Amino acid sequence: MVGFKSFLCGLLYLASVGAFQNPLAHVWTHAVPTEMRAVIDPNLYNNFLLDPAVVAVVSAAAGAAAQVPRIQQLERDLEQAHTELMEMEDQMVDKIKILEDQLFEMDTEFEQQSAREKKKYDMTLREEIEKTTKKLKEDYQFSLDIKLKDAKSQMLSEKLDFVNKLTGDKQSELSLLRLQSEKLQVDNHKLEEALDLSRNELEKMKNTPTDRKWWKF
């Protein structure tokens, strides 16, 4: 690549000094030393100038020299494109870094938000559980109170029935005892009357004449 550039620079020099107006003559004048030109046969020089191969080579060199500015411009464009590409690559790396940082921040924020939402959900769920538990306890206590009242009412009713039955039995027994007492009173009264009658009879017997007495008291 360096040799090609040197060759192109040489061609540019030749072009700058007007070598391509008569390139072979210019080569003879500037490239061949004066001492050599003095000893070289002029016919050989003329043959050299008129040689088609030499003319073709020199013409190709002249055409290549004409492309040197374009090649240099292309090299400058390539270097500029390379520089711009490197700058774009650096910008792309910076953008990727920014996007990665933003993505990390979004992930962090999402995790924090998820943690807050989870905590909020847990608190809400805990409150709902506490409310439900309290409601169940209240309902159970209310149901228990109702059942307890029903049980007390049933027990009181059974107790009243038992008392009424017991009282009824006692009243029946008391009535029977009263009847028996009244009967005993009647019988006792009859016995007292009989006893009084017997006593009267005895008194009468005591008061009878002596000769009629057959026992002594």
UniProtKB/TrEMBL annotation:
Signal listed as a keyword: yes
Span of the signal peptide: 1-19
Coiled-coil boundaries: 174-208
Keyword entries, A-Z: Coiled coil, Signal
The name this protein goes by in its record: Uncharacterized protein
Organism: Cyclophora tenuis (Marine diatom)
